[in-house]
């Protein structure tokens, strides 16, 4: 009994021990699984913030291009070069990142990318602290000790002409070449952004469950929407702050937000982006090269001996591939893509259409400013609020439609083509939403009040101001009580200036005629004249049209992009998408802002003057010619892009018919085969009946 009890207790003890051991094993597995999943989720959260910061930085820098143009007194074509430098930086390292991505610690490379983006943003904002205070063209007194000042005197030009120092010495003192920091900073920012998307998505694809991966990547795309929206909102706020905010007395600034000389605090948002990028890099520094794949945590040694992180098998194979083995597949893949008619035509469509879109997006804030007379702050805000949310809605519903109705490639191509064509036709309405040129004497209107355009500075002179000996190089506009603006108080013939700063009033102006008087004796105030209520209405109509066009175009963008993906073989998709992106950046992202900027420069009516002499940033444009070029060139480019689109539809139509015929033939064969089987099944089975019949006959004969 004692032995039996002891044995029983021993068995119970063993059973309890085994149970405890199993429970410990399960708990350990659960803990390990929780830790692994949490690491992946931490990576996802960090990557989402990296997406947010990179898109926020890009949107902010693009929104500040007009401010950078005015601050450094450079033409729009040079601003286009600065904008395209980001794509140059991206292209410099794209191939290396694509090749080395699976062979390095991807989280730490992403961390390095975030640090480089922060460094690039810091370099962009650095010139603000090296150039000193911003000095805009000003011919009027801002001194509080002076209540009156004569502005129309002989030898006035000697007072307002730029410095007569040697140009080299003057430029060295004023540091007018500081825009190079912005150029280099943008290149570094492009280098830093390159690894984030491809390495981040590949990391998620490698270690997430296949069914979870699309959801995770979809969540990341939310950040690519919130980032630009946040960047534009910050840009709108910074654009309404004076560039030297915190360093000077705001009362000394006589400029309004709509003045062509106004420069917002462009550097402030750039430094915010730099700080955020540096912070986002920190979590990636502490992440491992690899993680257990979701659902395969049991392969980890729970005792802790085999706790090494590992790559999935397919990645191990990729990591062991040599450059020679990879190069063997490169030429065949490239040859296959170059002979893929649908793919190559789609690349042509993308290059042509992105040449139109990138140029328009780059200079859209500037277009709204010049065409409708609003401030840069308002233009940036309207673009962010009106365009981005509706574009996201279009992408979402387009993708939802593709998923719900399981649309094939041929139908998707038709949806993408016809929605794009509909938006293209609506686009031409924008040519009618015009706002009259600002009335500036000697530029858009004569001193007698007759509409006329002039690119010649000598037309700024008239009999009413010829005795004043004014300079035509300075841009310091005043608005006369007759509703006409003048390039300067001197050119308006104003004799006396009362008050200071924003409260200055110019009187006894010989070029400003007052009602009831044949000779001018009117008054003026600093700044340009209001463009009128008609411009506000046209701006509203333009925004509504932009909203509708963005919704229609973005709705068809996802089906159109699926044509590209489905035209590629599974083994060619990665290379094909990369080559498509490379072509887009090389032939559209880099050249488009440059030649768009050059076209915009060709519409300039009045150039600003640098402190050391020479042309600076443009102060006033011919808005009619600006509109025709800004809207007309994209219209022509997009019209040309529909030619290869038609060829794509014809090729896909032929493929669709061939596939339909093959399906019908296969169905017919299957139906014929099923009918033959049915006929065989209905025929009596004689082999089974024969023995029974014979047996029956025998029995009957025996009975007889």
CATH class of the domain at 1-131 and 175-321 equals Mainly Alpha
Superfamily at the CATH H level of the domain at 1-131 and 175-321? Answer: MFS general substrate transporter like domains
Radius of gyration: 36 Å
Structural class designation: mainly alpha
Helical coverage, percent range: 55-70%
What's the β-strand tally? Answer: 8
Q: Strand portion, in percent?
A: 5-15%
Mean pLDDT: 80
| CA-CA gap between termini | 83 Å
CATH architecture of the domain at 1-131 and 175-321: Up-down Bundle
How would you describe this protein?
- It is a single chain.
- The longest helix has 62 residues, at 2-63.
- The chain has a domain at 1-131 and 175-321: Up-down Bundle (Growth Hormone, Chain: A).
- The strands form 2 sheets. The chain has a 6-stranded antiparallel β-sheet, with no helix packed on it. Strands 7-8 form a two-stranded antiparallel ribbon.
- Helices cover 64% and strands 5% of the residues.
- The protein has helices at residues 2-63, 65-72, 76-100, 106-125, 127-130, 156-160, 167-174, 179-193, 196-207, 213-239, 266-284, 313-320, 323-338, 341-362, 364-372, 376-386, 388-405, 409-427, 533-566, 573-589, 591-601, 623-682, 686-703; strands spanning 148-150, 478-480, 485-486, 494-498, 505-509, 522-526, 604-609, 615-621.
- α1 (2-63) packs parallel to α10 (213-239) and α4 runs antiparallel to α11.
- The chain has 23 helices and 8 strands.
- The model is unreliable at 1-8, 31-37, 141-148, 154-163, 300-321 and 686-704 (pLDDT under 50).
- The chain has 704 residues and is mainly alpha-helical.
- A hairpin with a 5-residue loop joins β7 (604-609) and β8 (615-621).
- The chain crosses the membrane at residues 72-97, 109-130, 215-243, 263-286, 342-364, 379-400, 539-564, 628-652.
- This is Solute carrier organic anion transporter family member.
- Belongs to the organo anion transporter (TC 2.A.60) family.
- Keywords: Cell membrane, Disulfide bond, Glycoprotein, Ion transport, Lipid transport, Membrane, Transmembrane, Transmembrane helix, Transport.
- Residues 458-513 form the Kazal-like domain.
